[in-house]
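Box S2. Input/output pair 1.
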Amino acid sequence: MYQQMIFVNLPVNDLDASKKFFTELGYTINPQFSDEKAASVVISDTIVAMLLTKPFYATFTDKEIADAAKTSEVLVALSAESREKVDELVDKALAAGATPSGRTQDHGFMYGRAFDDLDGHTWEVIWMDPAAVQG
């Protein structure tokens, strides 16, 4: 059965630093789709973050590239299997050089925290109680 995938393409200032950051979070780099201009970060079987140097990213768009440290261009949200896994991933990101973003959201059935990566892209990590989703 076909599984649709998502490829999030993000411009980065320092490809090597960004690769190091994401591997410190526990993700892997797929060398088949990585070179000196891009890195393919495997987040799951169906989610890949493509980190592109800004000159390479510019070849895919005629628009000005947003400075994610100053403007919000996207909020990337990742699910986590538990509240503890939310904290684990965000804490790893902060230890690897990310900055906290927003406030912790705790609604009982839903819990989330966010961080800005080295280039200012915002990543939200959320957990939802499966019983709340089904009900």
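Box S3. Input/output pair 2.
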Amino acid sequence: MKNKIYLKTNTDLTASPQVLSWFEQINQPAIPDQQIWWQCQTLLMEGFTNIVEHAHKNLPIETPIEIEALRLDEYIEIRIWSQGEPFDLEHKLRQTCEFEENEQKRGRGLKIMSAIADKLSYEPTGDNRCCLFIRKYY
């Protein structure tokens, strides 16, 4: 089984319900483990929110965010392309305190994503964009 979906949206947190609704298509037929599906939704929304609030924070609302989700027999992949400045995800994760010690309001999303995802990366793509890549096995 292979299912691939694509969405292009503005840099706007009010698009979150639309993004989540769009993502429901990839869950057909439904993943048997509801917790895994919830984790996939969390990964998508944390990724989208981070792009809007951090990567695109100084860019106009019309700046597109492109999202692709791919479901294969054993896993789901999510790619979110941004136009913000690249940053070193691994370095940022090492700098961020663990959940229990994190009194800041920021930075927990990356730790959550790192804990839930089976693979997580953020890399420049060569076309002046970066791609947040997430893989979750089910």
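Caption for Box S3: Residues 34-55 form the longest helix (22 residues). The helical segments are 16-23, 34-55, 89-95, 108-116.
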